[in-house]
Amino acid sequence: MFVYADNAATTAMSKAAIDAMTPAMHQLYGNPSSLHQKGREANYALMDARETVARCLNAQPREIYFTGCGTESDNWAITEGARLGAEQGKKHIISDPIEHHAVLHTLAKLEKQGFEVTYLPVHEDGVVRLEDLAAAIRPDTCLVTIMFSNNEIGTVQPIREIGALCRERGVLFHTDAVQAVGHLPIDVAADNIDMLSLSGHKFHAPKGVGALYCKKSVPIRNFIEGGAQERGRRGGTEAIPAILAMAAAMKDSCEHMEENMARVSAMRDKLIDGLSKIPRSRCNGSPDHRAPGLVSFCFEGIEGESLLLRLDLAGICASSGSACTSGSLDPSHVLLALGMPHEIAHGSLRLSLSEYNTMEEVDYILQQVPEVVRTLRQMSPVWSRMLETMEDPYQ
Ligand SMILES: *Cc1c(COP(=O)(O)O)cnc(C)c1O
After folding, report:
1. How many Å apart are CA 335 and CA 320, to the nearest integer?
2. What is the pLDDT of residue 328?
3. Which residue has the least CA distance to atom 14 on ligand 1?
4. How large is the average pLDDT for residues 106-117?
5. Best substitution site from 67, 106, 151 to test ligand 1's pocket, by max atoms within 8 Å of Cβ?
6. Is 254 designated active site?
7. I need a labelling partner for 76 at 20 to 30 A (CA). Which of 95, 146, 302, 332 fits?
């Protein structure tokens, strides 16, 4: 059996996305900035796509800027939020330690430039507390950036309440919603969001296209220098086929949101139940505030990397944490921020599902993972050391 359970790293393209992209690749090759008919044709398609994306978020079309990826959107929003603050002499930013590196590394750069960043604690469950945020906001706070849902442990933050608090205190609020768009209902107006980052390839659109929502009252400037595209704020000829595919995938996801959420969370819950039966295991992240498809576990006494390799041999594509950090042997910064000791954070497994997965695949995972964990433990010096001080749970 083959199971793709790494949807937080990237997703397969949907039929809706491919059906929108294919004719666009054949026919819509005009440059939307050109005045001739081929240009106009591309430009009309672009306007349609912008309207679709805006509608899915309850935004206005002119508040949507197409970008190259989620990373670019994060960099842009945070850099501009900081610049706008600095113009008023405000150089304090609030975030948290479990953000994606697109956010964390941008913040680190700003810190070098003289901004001060407060990282709110996320406690054991990965959830930011409103009272911590309220206490951290200062007169010189210019920006709060907190992700919608986490890419490693799936924790969903109280975004609407965070947004309301920021609005009440007059602080700009950005959210990295790359893991949320297409998976959870989002309404930028009701959720009090000023800026929101999204990326196509996390909801069945192609890679290399994203968007930034920026409320029209926020006077952001362009992040890269160039032409007059995206109302002068993001130069670069628009990637029409990819943008059209992203709009189609987003519409498709939004129209099937409720049924997908119900189906995917049922699979997630079955996985969590089953994996919890493995001795010396723990489920990471909040049990209540959790993205529909995300399952994160730690298994004591084993290395996450070996687990992944074995699962790969069994046909299961999973991840130990974020794909972006899997090149390094450091344990995940997210698990460490939850207060997990290094040696346990090393034995992590992330399974991320989408509506394309099935219950049969979940059953297969539940048959394989406990076996592989058990085999690895039999070979693990760490596990045999642990057996000196505890009863063997497999006896
Ligand atoms: C994947 C991801 C990103 C980066 O998006 P790209 O389009 O791959 O650049 C940013 N934030 C989160 C939470 C993500 O999961």
Report:
1. 11
2. 53
3. 178
4. 98
5. 151
6. no
7. 332
| 100 CA from centroid of ligand 1 (Å) | 7
- Ligand 1 nearest-atom number relative to CA 199: 7
pTM of the model: 0.96
pLDDT in tens, 257-312: 999 999 999 999 999 999 999 999 999 999 899 999 999 999 999 988 899 999 99
The atom number, within ligand 1, closest to the CA of 149 reads: 13
CB 235 within 8 A of CB 227: yes
Q: In angstroms, rounded to a whole number, what is the distance separating the alpha carbons of residues 229 and 277?
A: 54
How far is the C-alpha of 362 from the C-alpha of 349, rounded, in Å? Answer: 15
Q: Which of 105, 176, 183, 184 gets mutated to test ligand 1 (max ligand atoms within 8 A of its CB)? A: 176
Neighbouring-strand partners of residue 145: 174
CA of 307 to the centre of ligand 1 (A): 24
pLDDT in tens, 356-386: 999 999 999 999 999 999 999 999 999 999 9
Q: Is the pLDDT of residue 28 over 50?
A: yes
Ligand 1 atom closest to Cα of residue 10: 1
- Collect contacts of 130-136 with beta carbons under 8 A, ≥24 apart: 130/158, 130/161, 130/162, 130/165, 133/94, 133/162, 133/165, 134/165, 136/94
The predicted structure's pLDDT at residue 325? 47
